[in-house]
Design goal:
Structural class: alpha/beta
Helix content: 25-40%
Mean pLDDT: 75
Strand order of the largest sheet: 2-3-1-4
Radius of gyration: 18 Å
Shape: globular
Order of helices and strands: EHEEHEHEEHE
Strand content: 15-25%
Number of strands: 7
Length: 139
């Protein structure tokens, strides 16, 4: 049995539709279900829905054979033995920086992706390594 971990939400809904189109039927799956583990009728495929950062952990530690998650999560949390096999193109994300005239307010969540984004835009903003922080810079 192949075990795949998916990020809950939009990714899971899209991938489950694609699996159904490929002939995999999950009789207990429903978009609104609170259930997190599903097995197809043939017993060939098992799906576990988890939070996005946990997909990488499941795959790296062998709890799942493969995972489907956004590339932003892999950039942040996939420093170990994680390989990107295929970009499915199903969940596009973008970085945005909002500012008030005379100040620059930045909310940092992605510690690895944010500096790369800022470096391509010449935005000299400090990075918080302790989690999500809001920064206000005077000009």
């Amino acid at each position: 049995m192949l075990h795949i971990a998916f990020a809950k939400g939009r990714i899971a809904k899209t991938v489950m539709k694609n699996l159904a189109a490929a002939g995999f039927n999950f009789p207990t799956y429903d978009d609104d279900s609170r259930k997190l583990i599903f097995t197809d009728e043939t017993g060939m495929l098992k799906v576990t829905l988890v939070k996005s950062p946990d997909v990488v952990v499941y795959v790296e530690r062998g709890a799942a054979d493969a995972g489907v998650v956004g590339s932003d999560v892999i950039e942040e949390d996939g420093a170990g033995d994680t390989y990107v096999l295929l970009d499915l193109g199903i969940a596009k994300c973008r970085m945005a920086v909002a500012g008030i005239k005379g100040r620059q307010n930045v909310l940092e969540k992605e510690q690895e992706a944010s500096p790369r984004h800022r470096s391509t835009r010449a935005l000299p903003v400090p990075i918080s390594k302790a989690g999500t922080r809001a920064w206000t810079l005077s000009s």
